[in-house]
Amino acid sequence: MSSKIEKIAVIMDAPEFIHPEKDSSVVLIQEAQKRGYEVSQFEQKDLVLRDGQVFFNTTPVSEFKLILMRKDPPVDLEYIYTTIMLDLAVKQGVNVINNPQALRDCNEKLFISWFPQCCAPTLTTYNSALIKEFLGFHKDIILKPLNGMGGQGIVRVKQDEDNVLDVINAATNNGTTRAMAQLYLPEIKQGDKRIIMMHGKPLPYALSRFAKPGDVRANIAAGGSYQIAELTKRDKWICDHIGPVLKQKGLLFVGLDVIGEYLTEINVTSPTCLREIDTLSGINTAGYLFDGLV
Hints:
- The protein is an alpha+beta fold and about 290 residues long.
- About 30% of the residues lie in helices and about 25% in strands.
- It has eight helices and 17 strands.
- The protein has helices at about 25-35, 75-90, 100-105, 130-140, 165-170, 235-250, 275-280, 285-290, and strands at about 5-10, 40, 45-50, 55, 60, 65-70, 95, 120-125, 140-145, 155-160, 180-185, 190-200, 200, 205-210, 225-230, 255-260, 260-265.
- The strands form four sheets. Strands 12, 13, 14, 15, 16 and 17 form a six-stranded antiparallel β-sheet that branches. The chain has a four-stranded parallel β-sheet with strand order 2-1-6-7, sandwiched between helices.
C-alpha cells in the first residue's frame, strides 16, 4: 500500500497578479511538486474560522503538512486578520512559513532597527521638521513609506533642491503618516544586493539589482536589471548577526537588502528573486527551504 501523499497549501495573490516565469511562489510550488507533495493554492478570502477551527473553505487546515504564507503587501487589516487565523492553524499543529506572529511583529522597514550595527543612519518619524534636520545633516537622503513593496513610494532628496519641504510633506502626508529617512548610499550604483536567508543561513549567491538610469529604485519590479553576486565578508557578517534572530522568530524564508556595507530592509512577507538566482547561478534556491524542514 502506498503512503499517503502529504499536502502543502500556499496563500498568495489571485492568479491574474502572478507571473509564473519569475514568481518565487511558483518556484516553491514547483519544488514541492518535484518532491511529491500535493500543492493547493489559496487566497486570503479562502480562510474560514468556525468555532475556533480554521479551514480553507470547507477543508480543515490540519490536513496540510505546511502552509506557505506568500501574500504580497500591503500588510493591511485583512493581512493582519489572516495572520491571526494562521496563529490558530499553528495551534492546530500546522507548520506555517513564515511564522504568523513574526509577520505581524516585523515590519519590513522598521525591523532593521533591531540591528543598528548593520545599518546606515536611519530616522522614522511623522515630524517633517525632524526629517528636514536629518537631511540638513546628511545632505542626501532616501525617503520611503513603511508599508510599500517593489520600490513603491521611494524618493531621493538632496538638501539643495527647491521643493524639499513639499517632498517631505508628501512622504509624511503632511505629518499624519510615519516615513523612514535613510542616508543615501552612493554604492547603490554598484547594486542593491538581495541576500536570501533560509532557516537563518544565507544562500551561497545573492542577486545584485541595478536601477534604470534616472531612478533610485533598483527593484526588479521597478524595471531594474540584475546579475548574480557572491557574498562579501561584510555580507556574511550581517547575516551572522541577523540569522539567529530570524530563526528564533520562525522567519525561515527572508530576503535581506544590502547596499554597500549596510542593511536597508528585511523582507519577510513574500521575498522574491528565487527564479533569477536559480537561472544565473544554477543552484536550487527552493531546495534549501525544503531541505531544512523537519
